[in-house]
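protien #1 (seq + structre)
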Amino acid sequence: MLRAPSRNRFAALTVKLLGLGVGVVSVSLALAYLFDDATFLVGTGRTQLGDVIAVLASASLAFTGAALIAQLPESFRVRFRRIPTAIQRKPVYGLGTMLAVGIGATLGSPLFILIPENIVQYTIVSLGSLVLAAILSVGMAKVYSDMYVESKALGLGSVGGPSFTKLAAGTKSARYFISRLSMWVANTALAAYTKIVFLVFDFVFMPQILQGYGFSPVLSQLTIYLIAAAFIAWTLLNIAFEQRFLRVIGAAQILLTALLLVILLYHSLLLGNKGSWNLAGLFSLPPGLGWVPALIINTGYLYLLFFGFQEIQSLERDAVERSSVPIVSWIRKGYQLERTTYFGIAMVASVVVASAVNIFYALAVFSVHPSSSALLSSQIPALYLAQNLLGPGQELLIGVAFLIATITTFVPAFLAAARHLAALGEDGYMPHSLAKLSWVFTLVAVFLLAVGNQDFLVNITDFMVLISLGIITFSAIWLKRRASIRASYGTALPVVIGISCFAFGGAVYFLSPSVVVFGSIAVVFAYLIFDILELGSLGVQLFLPVFNLSCLTALEFFQHTTPPAGVLDPVTRLLGVDLGTLLVYAIIVASALLVANLMVDIIVLERTALVRRGHTRSATKGL
C-alpha cells in the first residue's frame, strides 16, 4: 500500500486546519456583514442592483466558509459514525398535549402587540383579516391532515410540514429544500421577535409594574433577573433534556396554555364591559386602498398569529399511536383515536380556539375606542390598555399572560427551527457532525436577528412562512399525482389554499418592499445552496471560487453602498478598512484557501487511485 510522505500529510492537515479557522471567521464575518447591510438597507429602503450583488457576495462568503469548515470532518469521515437518520424516541404525547401545543404556539406574545394596533387602525378590515386568516389556517390544517394520512399509509413519518414535500417530490428536490429552509428562517425570525418583546417587557415594563406594588428597587431588580433566569432555564431544559423530561414538559404546556386561555378570556370580558361593548365605527373602512386590497395585505401581515398549529406536526415522533380523548374517554371507557385522526382534530381545533380568542380580544379592545397614536407609541399595547383602563391588578395579570405566551411561543418556535435544520442534516444536505449542532446555529441566528427591527422580523416571518406553506400545500397535488399513491382527498382545497398563501405573502410587499426583496433573495439563495450541494465536495470547491470571482467582478461594475459598520465596527477600526473592503479581502482569502484545499483533495484522490491500481496488480499477479 502506497503512503504519502509524512511532510505531505502534515501539509494537507495544515491546509485543513487552516481552512477550519478561516471558515469559522468567514462565516462569522459574512453573517455580521449581512446583518449590518440588511439593517442599513431596510432602514433606508434601498433595493438597487449593486446592493443586491453585495448581499449575494456576502452570502457567497458564508457558503465558502461553511465549505471550508465541512472539509475537516469530510476528510476524516471514516473515523466518525454517521448519526442515525431518525432518532428513536419514546412517544408520550396525546391529543390533550398536542392541542395545548397548537393553542400555546398560536396564542403567542405577538397577539399582545399586533391585535390592539391593527383593530384600531383598520377596523372592519382587521376583523375580516382575522376571520380570513383563520379560514386559511383551518383549510391548511385539513390539507396537512390529509397528507399525513397518506404518509402513514405508506409507513412513513412526517416531522413538520416540509416532510410532506419530501414525500411528494423526493429528498433531493429543490422544492423540499426551499420549503424546509424557508420554514427554518420563519421560525428563527419568530423566536427572535419573541425574544425582543420579552426583553422589552422584563427590563422596561416589569420594573414599573413591581414598583406599583411597592417593591423596593433592589427587590424589583432581583425579580427581573429571576424572571430572565427562569426563561433561560426553561429554554435550556427543552433543548438539553427534552427527551428525558418529555412528559413533564407536556404537562407544563397543558397547564400554561389553560392558564393563558383563562386570563385572556377574563381580561377580554372585563375590557369589553369597560367599553360597554360599544362597536360603533367598526364597519367604517380605513382611508387609502380599497377594502379588497387592504384585506389581502392585512391578512398577510396578521398571519403571524395563526401558523402555530403546524408545531403539532413537528412533534410527530413524540406522539402516541392511539390517544384517549379528554372528557369523552371518561364517559366512554376505552375510547381512543388513531394518531392520524387526532392530529387533524388537534390542528383544526387549535386554530378555531386561538382564532376565537383573537377575535374576542380584538372586539374588546375596539369597544373601549383607545387612541391609535397612544397604542402605536406604546411598545406593548396590551399592557398600556390594562394599566390605563383596568388598573394595576389587570396590568399584572396581563403581564403574567404575556410571560406565559412568550414561553409557549419562543420555545416551540426555537425547537421547530432546530428540528428543520437537523432534518436537512439527516437528509444529507450538511455533514452529520454539523447537523447535531443545529440548535447552536439556530441560537446564533436568533441572537443576530434579535438586535434587528421588530417590524422587519414580523414581516419576514409572515413572508417566509407563507412561501413555505404554499409549497407544502401544493405538495398535496404532487402527492396525488404519484402513480404509487391512491390519495382519497380532492385537489380543489390545496389549489385554493396554495394560491392564497402566495397571494398573501406577495401582499407583504405593499407593507415593506424591502422585506419581500430580501425574502425573495433568501428563496433564490436557498435554490443556489441546493444546486451547490448537489455538486458534491469537489464540485463545491471548484464552483465557489469561480462564483466569488464573479461576485467581486460584478461589484466593480455596479454601484453599491457600503453600510456603516455596526457589529463589525471594532474589526474595521482595528484593521483600518471600511466594511466593503473587509468583505473583498475576506472573499479573496477564503477562495484562495478553498482552491488550496481542492488541490489537496485532488492529490489525495490521485494517491488513492494509485493505491487501488497497486492492489489490483498484486491481486492479478497472485492469480
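ok now protien #2
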Amino acid sequence: MSQRVLIVDDELLLAKDVANTLAASGYEVHIVQDGPSALVESQQFKPDIILLDLVLPTMSGLAVCAELRRLPATRRVPIVMLTARDDEDNITRAFAAGADDYITKPVKKYELIPRLGAHLRSKRLLDELEQQTRDRTLLLELQNTLASRFDLRQILRVVASRLIEAIHVERCSIILIEPGADTGVVVVASEDPNVQDIKLELKNYPEIVETMQTRAPLVVPDADHHPVFAEVKPKQVRAAILFPMLVTNEVIGVMLLRSSQPIEALSTRELTFGQTVASATAVAVRNARMFSGIAEESVRLDVERREVAERLELVRRFEDFISGAADGMLTMNENGIITFANRAAAEMLNINAGEGLNVDFLAYVEARDRDRIRAIISQSQSAHVTSVFDVPIVLAGERRILSASISSFMHRHGATLFTFRDITRDRQNAVELKRTKDFLENLIDSSVDPIVAWTPAGEVVIMNKAAESVFGFSEKEHPRAPDLFGATGAEEIMRDLRSPERGGVGKLDLSRREITNKAGEKIPVNFTAALVYQDGQETAVVGIFADLRERLRIENKLSLAQEKLQMSEKQAVIAELAGTTAHELNQPLTSIMGYAELLKKKIQDEALKRPLEVIAREAERMAEIVRKIGRITKYETKTYVGSTRIVDLDASVSEEEGAVVIPGPDKGRPS
C-alpha cells in the first residue's frame, strides 16, 4: 500500500511540481491551499507525512502545525515545513510549533525524497515499537487473567474481547473440540454473551477442519474466493481468521475471528500475537479443566464425609424415636427376612422387638401378592428409591391392609428400612365414603330439577343432567357461572347470598329469575341457592332451579280459556238484555206509529200533517233500531266520542232476518 503525503501550500504551481515528484516515487499525494482545509483533510485523508508551507493565508503554517500536534489523529504524523525563509528565528519557531524538519524552497528532488523516506522509516519504527509495547502489555494482562482465574467461561470471554481489539475484527468465537470428535462446542461468542455450549458439526465448517489438520493459523481475506470454502459457503461472513489452540501439539480448540467485509492479509506481528494468545489460552483451558476436576473431586469427598457424619448423627438422634414411633419400623434383607423391629411393629406382627430377629415378613403377605412385594424389596437394595404401596397381610386369620414405604436409608449395609401402618379401618371408611359419594352424585344427577354448584370464583363443579338440558351446556365443557347467569346475574346472586335481606346470609329465598341458555334463549325459572362453608370460608354455591316454561304455558292457556268464558257470559247477558229491551220498547213504538197514521188521516191541515210525518218516520226508525237490538247475539264495540266506546249494533246483530223473539214471560210471542 502506497504511503500518503498531504501538501499544504497556497502556491499551487509549486505544490503540483512537488506532488508530481512524489507521485513518480510511488507516493499518494493530496494538495490543499490553506490552514482550515489542511485541518479537515488531515482527519479524512489520514496522511503518513505532511509537507506544510510556513506562510499561508488566513492561518499561518505555525498555527496549523501547532493544531495538528494537538489533534489525536495527527499527533505523531511527521511534519516537514516548506519555507523560503531559512533564517534562524523562523526555523526555531517551526520546531517549537512541532515540526520535525524543514526544507527550503525551491524544493530539490534529491533532497526531498531521502528526507521523507528517513522520517517515514523513523515513524514506522516508532509505530512498531509502540505496537510491540501494546502487544506485550496486552499479553501480560491476558497472562495475569489466565493465571489468576479458574472460571473457564470468564477466561474465554476476556480473551475474545482482547483479540477483537488487537486484530480489529467484528466477532470472535471460541470453539472447544475433544480429540477425535466430529463436533465442537461454542463456549463463547463475543456477539452474544448468553451463548453457551452450542454444538457444531465440524463437517459444516471446513475452515475449522483445515486449521485442526494444519495446526497453523488460517487467514481467509475473502471467503467468496478462497478454496477452503469451495463446497460450503459461510453465512454472513466475508473474512475469517482462525488460530489453533495447541497443547503439546494437540488441538483442543479453535479461535475463530470473523468479519462481514473482506480484510487485508495479517502482518507477521498480528499472526504471532494471535497464535501466542491461542496457545496460552489452551494451557489455561487445560489448567482450568484440571482445577475443575480436582475441585469437583474435593467437593465430592467433602459431601461424602458430611453425609457419613450426618448418617451417624441421624442414627444417634433417632434411635429413641424409632423405638418409640407409633408407626411400625422394620429392617430386612433383600429376601424379606426381618432383622430388627421397633415396639409398634412387634405388637402389630406379634413378634419380639429389638435386633437379631430372623422372621420371614413374606410369610405374613397374602400369597397372590408375595412376588410383587419381593420385587419391591429387591429393587430397594440397588437404588436410592422410596416407594409407598399397600401390603395385604393375614394376622390371626384376619385380613389387614398395611400402607408401607421402603427407604434406601441403609441400602449400603444390605438392609432396607420398612415403615408401615395399619390402614384397614381407613380403607373401609374410604369404601363407605365412596359409596355415599356415588349415591349423592346419583341422587343429584337423577333430580328432575336443575342443580348447579360452582366455586366463589365462578368455576362450575357440579351440573346434573336436568341443568345440562336447560342451559344447553355439558359439564365437560367446563362452563363458568357468568356463562349460565350472565356476568351481572352471577354477581347479583353472590351479592344476595351475602346479604341478610333475601333469606339470611348464606341463603337465598325462592324467587323468580330469568336465565339465558347456550342458544341465547331467555328462560324463566324459580331459583333458590345457598352458600357452602368449610372452616368458616365460602367454598361453593349450590343453586336449584325450576323451569317455568311449561307452567307458564299452561297458565297462559288457562287465562285464554277464562277470557273466552267471560266473553261468552258477557254475550249471553247482552243478548238477554237486548231481548228484554226490544220487548219493552216494541209496544210503545207500535202505539206511537198507529196513532200517528190515524192523525194523518183525520187532520186535513197541511201544516199539521208535516210534523205527523216526521213523528211517523222517526218512530219507524226507532222501530228498526229495536229490531236490531232484538237480534243482538254477540258483544262488539266501536269508538263513539274520544276514547268512549259503545255497542256496535251492525256488528253485533245476527245475520238471520225474522221476527224478534222477546225473552221472559211472553217468550215465543211474535212482536
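The first helix runs from residue 12 to 24.
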